[in-house]
Structures are given as C-alpha cells and as structure tokens.
Design brief:
The complex is a heterodimer of chains A (117) and B (114). Chain A has 117 residues and is mainly β. Chain A is 0% helix and 44% strand. Chain B has 114 residues and is an all-beta fold. The chains are: A mainly beta (117), B mainly beta (114).
C-alpha cells in the first residue's frame, strides 16, 4: 500500500535526551513536511523539504533538526534544546507542482505523540 | 509570509443543521493552492478538497460545498444537514506554488449533537 508511515506512534523521552521521529513515504513525492500540534491548537510548521539534501525552516524550527538523504525519508530529531517538546508530531508529503505534479495536496502519516517524562 | 485564519475556534450544532466554517488567507503570491482537511479523534488528517488560485469555481460534493472568493481572500466550507460523524477538527491550509511552503489555520472544532 502506498502511503506515509510514522514511527513510533508513542514516544517517551527523558529530559535532556535527543530523540528521532521516523517518517517514510513510498508515494514518490518530492516535498515532505513536519508539523507540531499542541492540544487544542493548530498545526505549526517545523521544517519542510522540497528535494533531497535540501530543507527549509518553518515557524518553530528552534530545537529541532532534520535530514533528507533519501527521497523517501525525512526524519525529525527533537534535541535537548527544545524546551517544551511534549506534543503530537505529524509528517506529510506531497507532489511539487513545479515539477509537474497536478495533485498538490499533502498526505499525512498517523502521527507520533511525544511525551517528556 | 502567508497566513491562514480560522476565526471560529469551536462550533456546536444539532444534527441536520447546516454549518459553515470560515477560512481567510493572506498571501502576496498570485499562484497558490487552498485545502481543507478533517482531523477525526484518531489524529490523522484526511484531505477533503483542493482549490487552485486561478479557479474560483465553487464545488459541491454530497453534503459538502466550498465557496472560494479571491476578492475577499476566503475559502469557506459548508456542511449541509450535518451528521454526528461530521464531528471533528477541520483545518484550512494554504500552499504557495513557488516554494512549497504550506501553512495551516488554527482549526475549527465542530461538534454535531444528535
């Protein structure tokens, strides 16, 4: 089945630790995104990537890092510098309209719920 | 930078009522895309509709309809004869053509009571 897979579904982190959230897609999409959602709030953009080895900061990139070594993968690392990391993290991917993609909507994974203990 | 505003934080209706969710956007780009997503309690976002900036034609899909007006920078979503299963958080989003940046509004939580 084609789609986006995020893992793990639930993640617990001790204060001061770095953790990495996985996001894999087999849709052959160029663009990938990471969003953070806090309870009762909307989605805030952390990072996005348009092609391999390229990514841009979103509104709340501080304390996070990403890599895009393969088209299919866009892992997010929550570093110890992120002071309030407890949240729901959503990964998404989409076609790039500039390279011929007509369907520009993003498809989302099921999310990872990160809790700091 | 672009911005999406969903002024309605929560809406509660009784089943079979019609309800409209508002979305206002800001961008200086002339080519962009607008979307609506539904987020049920499970958390995964479900795509509902896409609209291109050069296509202002309204769309109807069953009980759902969307009204896109560039003159007021709005992309409103109406559910006719609402049902309990429509209860969810609904997000409006804006994506730019030139750099793939995609931003979401704060969402509207819709509760449909039986």
């Amino acid at each position: 089945d084609g789609g986006i897979t995020q893992s793990p579904k639930y993640l617990f982190r001790k204060e001061g630790q770095n953790v990495t959230l996985s996001c894999e897609q087999n849709l052959n999409h160029d663009a990938m995104y990471w969003y953070r959602q806090d309870p009762g709030q909307g989605l805030r953009l952390i990072y996005y990537s348009q092609i391999v080895n390229d990514f841009q900061k979103g509104d709340i990139a501080e304390g996070y890092s990403v890599s895009r070594e393969k088209k299919e993968s866009f892992p997010l690392t929550v570093t110890s510098a992120q002071k309030n990391p407890t949240a729901f993290y959503l990964c998404a991917s989409s076609m790039d309209p500039r390279t011929g993609g007509l369907n520009t909507e993003a498809f989302f994974g099921q999310g990872t719920r990160l809790t700091v203990v | 930078a672009q911005k999406v505003t969903q002024a309605q934080t929560e809406i509660s209706v009784v089943e079979k009522e019609d309800v409209t969710l508002d979305c206002v956007y800001e961008t200086r780009d002339t080519t962009y895309y607008l979307f609506w997503y539904k987020q049920p309690p499970s958390g995964e976002l479900v795509f509902l509709i896409r609209r291109n900036s050069f296509d202002e034609q309204n769309e109807i899909s069953g009980r759902y309809s969307w009204n896109f007006q560039k003159s007021t920078s709005s992309f409103n979503f109406t559910i006719t004869a609402s049902q309990v299963v429509d209860s969810a958080v609904y997000f409006c989003a804006l994506r730019l053509y030139n750099n793939n940046d995609m931003r979401f509004g704060a969402g509207t939580r819709l509760t449909v009571k039986p």
